[in-house]
Specification:
mainly alpha, 5 helices, elongated
């Protein structure tokens, strides 16, 4: 139950950050809190030996720096979408779809890079546990985000 509450807290923070940033008024506090909570969730779910921790956490920190850059790009994209709800042009729509797919593509590349690095440092079963947490958080984030950003009219 604690894990579910923690995951919901992470999602609420991420979505709140996205929506407040899209509206032009949000400090980084919700994002920082979400990242801290996410790390706590991973620590709870992923039992690592001392040597594995020394290998995993620096890789994770670098991975998260790059993931946050993609998150910020997605936030900017969502801001444009919300701002242009009723006035979007074909050119803007094309650029938004291209940017969305670029973000998705870069996200997959980032995950594959992380996987390759992790495979050199920790056992595959633990890698799977880690990616399960990442996938669940990402799925919940996209679900909550989709609930709060309306379709174009």
């Amino acid at each position: 139950m604690k894990t579910i509450k923690l995951m919901l807290t992470i999602m609420a923070c991420l979505v709140a950050f996205q929506l407040s940033a899209a509206e032009g008024d949000g400090p980084n506090l919700d994002l920082e809190h979400a990242l801290t909570e996410k790390k706590a969730l991973i620590e709870e779910y992923l039992p690592l030996t001392g040597q594995e921790k020394q290998a995993f956490w620096p890789l994770y920190e670098n991975y998260m720096k790059e993931l946050v850059k993609l998150f910020e790009r997605r936030t900017a994209l969502n801001k444009v979408l919300m701002d242009k709800q009723k006035t979007i042009t074909a050119e803007q729509a094309r650029a938004m779809v291209d940017e969305h797919l670029d973000i998705v593509s870069e996200s997959v590349k980032l995950k594959k890079s992380m996987l390759a690095k992790l495979r050199k440092k920790i056992p595959d079963v633990k890698i799977l546990k880690y990616f399960q947490v990442e996938i669940k958080i990402e799925a919940a984030y996209f679900y909550l985000l989709s609930e709060n950003i309306p379709l174009l009219k």
